[in-house]
Amino acid sequence: MCAGKKTGSWARPGANHQLARISRLTRAQHQALTAVEQALSAAKLPPLAWYDVLLELERAGGSLRPFELERKMLLAQYNLSRLVDRMEKAGYVERRALKEDRRGQAIVITAAGKSLRRRMWPVYGSAIQATIGDRLSPKQVDALGALLSALIGKPAK
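User: That's the sequence. What structure does it adopt?
Assistant: Structure tokens below.
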């Protein structure tokens, strides 16, 4: 920001410097996600997206409608549908018809899915700790959390 003023414009003086700083966020995210995916693969576990689906289903009490899961996962419908197809084939989720809406369905986590998520967490958690937690102080983690909350909590203009 120039002279402490917020202008909201990336065209102001110093914007390239700020853009470079913000691009580091993307690189840090890529680095952390790559480390998680590599750790899961080395442990012969499914990809991170599977963990995310299972976690969202558990957080929701065990089931969600596809559009609800789509919103939580930020995936396009066709990508989510293929992901759920693979997870269903592996026995980690099931599609069930909704009693109140015969055309609708719910995606339900199975006992095997719950077990898989619990096995994945130590690998996922360790990779995140190594790529982020071990590099930041508790104060920095708090500051990062506050900054990310500010970004996530406000829609872009």
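Residues 31 and 50 are 19 Å apart (CA to CA).
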